[in-house]
Amino acid sequence: MTMMKRARSGFTIVEVLVAVMILGVGVVALAGSSAMVTRMVGRGKIDTRAAQLATQQVEALRLIAYSTTPRCTALLSGGPQPTTNVTLSWNVAVTGTGRTLTVNASYATVAGTRTQTLTTYIEC
Q: How far apart are CA 13 and CA 24, in angstroms?
């Protein structure tokens, strides 16, 4: 008696289930990381905006300092100055023959208020 061998082709149900489980774990991991990436991009946007506004304020104060004679006489501390989602404040301190400018850019986040500080020196 000769036994006939069947041609085996295709996947077993166990192989299909294992493949679906692995694929499912990968999709869940991607979905979780995409939410985190979206939050990070949003935070990066507001961080960049705050830094840009602080830099613009420093340049405006530098222009005020250099436009007076003698220099730096019209340079004063100020703020808070609210802009779009960011509040600016600045402090001017006499340091030797110049002025030290400290500009704070504050903005609200889910975890509370964050503040970025930009400090520079203007020679008078």
A: 16
